[in-house]
């Protein structure tokens, strides 16, 4: 397993609620590091070909502004896509992403009601998202400066970004509790560690064990 870990699969623990309700805090997940091609550690090159990341993939990646930190988010925009998010509606290349309303969710910890939707990105499985209708579309104070910042335009209702070549746009499923590409910018392809595919343990919530969609 020691030899396989750098190349094939690696365990991670979910530290925050930014991807709720998909993985939740405390989930132990496995990440497929082979699916996008076998990458040599510490080198910006691949030994084997692999699939291209797709819309809807849940990925673990090195944070662009601090590569020592691993993040988990969902890919919503591919290279060349135009991604906008205004009035809590995700739009890809001019087409609103289909959403099916679900029952509201009440978080007793924050005393907050969330709208829940079943969202469909491309041909992937549907996945649940959470939206706080009273929260702004991105953190007050605005986004960080980041590479290709000129590809994004922000206003009070949201933003629109053109994803540059070799990069991806990633967001959390807990849309109003997630620091993601809205704030720190695009995810370079070379920063992607792999695709999260299963929750294999959560000692506090064993019902979460299963495949990640």
TrEMBL record:
Gene Ontology MF terms: serine-type endopeptidase activity; signal peptidase activity
Leading EC class: hydrolase
Keywords: Hydrolase
InterPro entries the UniProt entry points to: LexA/Signal_pep-like_sf, Pept_S26A_signal_pept_1, Pept_S26A_signal_pept_1_Lys-AS, Peptidase_S26
Pfam families named in the record: Peptidase_S26
A single GO BP: signal peptide processing
EC assignment: 3.4.21.89
Annotated Gene Ontology cellular component terms: membrane
SUPFAM superfamilies noted in UniProt: LexA/Signal peptidase (SSF51306)
Domain Peptidase S26: 2-200
Stated family: Belongs to the peptidase S26 family.
Protein name: Signal peptidase I
